[in-house]
Amino acid sequence: MLAITVSPAAAKQQNADVLIRDVTVIDVEHARPVAGQAVVLRGKDIVAVGPDARIAREWRATRTVDGKRRFLIPGLWDMHVHFGGGPELVEENKALLPLYIAYGITTIRDASGDLPDQVLAWRGEIADGKLFGPHLLTSGAKIEGLAPVWKGTIETGSEADVDRALGRLQQRDKVDFVKITDSTLKPELFLYALRQAKARGMRTSGHIPMALTVGQAVDAGISSIEHLDYAFKAGVKDEEQIAADFAAGRIDRAEANRRLAAGSDPATAMAAYRNFAAKGVFVTPTLNGSRIIAWLDSEDHSKDAYLAYIGPKLRKTYDWRVQRAAQADAAAIAARHTHIDRIGAILPMLQKAGVTIIAGTDAGFLNSYNYPGIGLHDEMSVFVKYGLTPAQALAAATRAGPAWFGKLDRYGAIRPGMAADLVLLDRNPLQDIAATRAIRTVVMNGKVHDRLALDSILTAARNKVAAWNAVEAKRAD
Predict the structure, then answer these.
(1) How many Cα atoms sit within 13 Å of 469 on the Cβ side?
(2) Cβ partners under 8 Å of residue 412, min gap 6
(3) Which helix (H) or strand (E) holds 214?
């Protein structure tokens, strides 16, 4: 009988599920690459990280991933997405979920659409492993005023209504944060909702009413400011007077916006942004979405390759913004171009003031050509265009989201005890932020999706949309 001899070193090896060998780990927190590392995964956890030779002696794994000449980053977070368009678009929205993983995005924050109950159900199905998609954090239905423009809301016209809304969101829906918008919500109720949510320990984001200053929302306890226009507004010297004039009906929204656009003051802005930082208020610029709309007059998206992943009914929701942009005259178009550069210029100011900048796309229904998945990479590129370093842009997409949710003990770094949500890149994103697009492998919940698997996800998405397109074409005949 043949005797099998096991060396003492091999006998002492610990078992793991995945071993990523000889990789350069990107330490996003300190903006530095650490070469020659190995990363050990067991289940959904990172259990060891260290020099490749030592880890290889100490560990053996069911699957080994070659990381030589490649770069490993934490999973990406898109902190502002939407699902919606009505019940008939549920399946087209659901089909977007795998696209996020295909583009390295392992967590998304749904900032509310008109399918809140459906999204809450998806959140549970993903967590239970029954639905393939990124970790999903959601606000559920947003809080609004009576008879609002947006669907899928909880309508409130009194403090008692707000209390009931918050109770439902916290106790029944167990939302991850609260979204508050200003279509018809009374300004005083907006502030009340912020204060009450904070008292309940709930994070908040939203659209700040024109009749309020941004500082009032900050003082009331807003947790994140969505869209860079609001941060820009906080830097306008006469913001308080403009808000008062709007509240009193002395000016309309167009005039208020005109005065805001002309009133930026660097000293006022830096004071406001330092106050954001002091009170822990984050900013989600959603800048690429604004850039797309600003340049619709000269950028033709009708042949975008990514349209192959967007269902026909979702594509139809793009028409609203496209048509609005097409109605603009030459002066309005020039103003759009100037405005996007004007608001983009405040990104470095926010960074300098110590404000945490969050990467989020605003991707989803209505928001024309702002695509789920690739849109986050576009957002990071726009951040760099307007003055952030690649390291700062990468931190906005890997660490800011976990920081906002109080989850930096689990996400945003590559070390033992952290979640096994990782992205293996062919190039160094600290040198060129476009490297985040060069994805070799995505690890989600410890499961490895290599390039072949990622391409299969994309092929399945294209095929599904092609089938829907064929049905729509047949109906049109």
Answers:
(1) 12
(2) 28, 29, 74, 398, 399, 401, 402, 403, 418
(3) helix 214-220
Rounded to 5 degrees, φ, ψ at 311 are -60, 155
For residue 1, what pLDDT band results from cuts at 50, 70 and 90?
very low
The pLDDT value given to residue 11: 54
Beta-strand pair 32-42/14-27: antiparallel
Over pLDDT 90: what percentage of the chain? Answer: 92
With H, G, I as helix, E, B as strand and everything else as coil, classify residue 79: strand
| Most distant CA atoms of the chain, gap in Å | 98
What DSSP string describes 299-359? ---TT-GGGGGS-HHHHHHTHHHHHHHHT--HHHHHHHHHHHHHHHTTHHHHHHHTPPB--
Phi, psi of 72 (to 5 degrees): -110, 125
Instruction: Compute the average pLDDT of residues 146-165.
Output: 96
- The average pLDDT across 121-141 equals 98
Residue 354 · residue 73 · CB < 8 Å:
no
Q: Are 104 and 133 in contact (CB under 8 A)?
A: no
All structural domains of the chain = 14-73+412-462 (2.30.40.10), 76-405 (3.20.20.140)
Task: Report CA 336 to chain centroid distance, whole Å.
Answer: 24
Q: Which residue has the tokens 């405005």?
A: 339
Residues 421 and 418: their CA atoms lie apart, in Å, by 8
In DSSP terms, which residues pair with 42 in a beta bridge?
A: 45
> What per-residue confidence (pLDDT) applies to 2?
33
β-strand partners of 224: 205, 282
470: number of Cβ within 10 Å: 11
pLDDT, tens digit, 9 for 90 and up, residues 445-466: 999 999 999 999 999 999 999 9
Tokens for 22, please give them: 């000889």
Residues 6+ apart with CB under 8 A from 405: 137, 176, 177, 203
Long-range pairs of 242-251 with CB within 8 A, sequence gap ≥ 24 = 243/210, 243/211, 243/212, 243/213, 246/210, 246/211, 247/187, 247/211
Q: What is the pLDDT of residues 282-338, one digit of tens each?
A: 999 999 999 999 999 989 899 999 999 999 999 999 998 888 888 899 998 999 999
Polymer length of the chain = 477
Structure tokens at 326: 């097409």
- The per-residue pLDDT for range 351-404, each reduced to its tens digit, is 999 999 999 999 999 999 999 999 999 999 999 999 999 999 999 999 999 999
Mean confidence (pLDDT) of the chain: 95
